Amino acid sequence: MELFGIPLVDTYHFTELIIRFAINTLVIIILVRYLYYKLTNRKDYLFTYFLIATTVFLICFMLENVKLELGFALGLFAVFGIIRYRTQQIEIKEMTYLFLVIGISVINALSNRKISYAEIIFTNVALITITYLLEKVFFLRHETRKTIEYEKIELIKPENYQLMMDDLEERTGLKINRAEIGRINFLRDSARVRIYYYSEDNPVNFEDTDNYPYDDDDD
Question: Which of 108, 138, 168 is the last residue of a domain?
């Protein structure tokens, strides 16, 4: 059955999409969630890797039979370079959403008659569902970080870790989850300390723009 020359369901290709999507998702979960995340505990990048992997997979599968002019293809992916270098810095999560909406738009606009409506609908629903699960179900707590200049250098010793944590919480008013010691300057008796805290535990929050150099050698 067709509608305007496009099949409502192409059983063969739709089944292939489901199987390939399941395999890709399983591999990404193992690689990113159970390998990368356990080592780094970086939720922003975990979110990004999941959505970029899913979007790229669906773009490649859905547009496999679409012939694009070289200039159009280069111009499409140059959008990221224009936005990155011509505007203010965009956070990684916002860049992920940008990539997501561009990917969905490309799929919906360029999918040809060889792709059924069932495949198009599944692709859109899959991206929306995964985004919702990542935002609302799997990763409810968002860990924010800040780098500060800390002058109580005697507290950076491993045995004084808890004392340093208590001092940082008292000064910042934040409920800190963990802290890491960066560059130490014995001439100035100071160290760069990166603190991590959950946004949900701190009703009054600092702006999440940690662009401060952590381990560089500038003075």
Answer: 138
- Tell me the β-bridge partners of 216: none
Is residue 185 domain-shared with residue 130, that is, in the same domain?
A: no
Q: What is the pLDDT along the chain (219 residues), one digit of tens a residue?
A: 777 777 777 788 888 888 888 888 888 888 788 777 776 676 777 788 888 888 888 877 776 666 655 555 556 566 555 555 555 565 676 677 767 777 777 777 667 667 787 888 888 888 888 888 877 777 656 667 888 899 988 888 889 999 999 999 898 888 888 888 888 888 888 899 998 887 666 655 555 445 555 555 444
Predicted TM-score (pTM) of the model is 0.54
User: Is residue 195 classed as helix, strand or coil in its secondary structure?
Assistant: strand
Structure tokens at 188: 């100035």
CA atoms within 13 A on the CB side of 166: 5
Distance CA 194, CA 214 (A): 8
Please check whether residue 116 is in contact with residue 9, taking contact to mean a CB–CB distance below 8 angstroms.
Answer: yes
Q: Would you call 169 helix, strand, or coil by DSSP?
A: helix
Amino acid present at 121:
I
d(CA 197, CA 112): 47
Residues spanned by the domain of 120:
2-138
Number of domains in the chain: 2
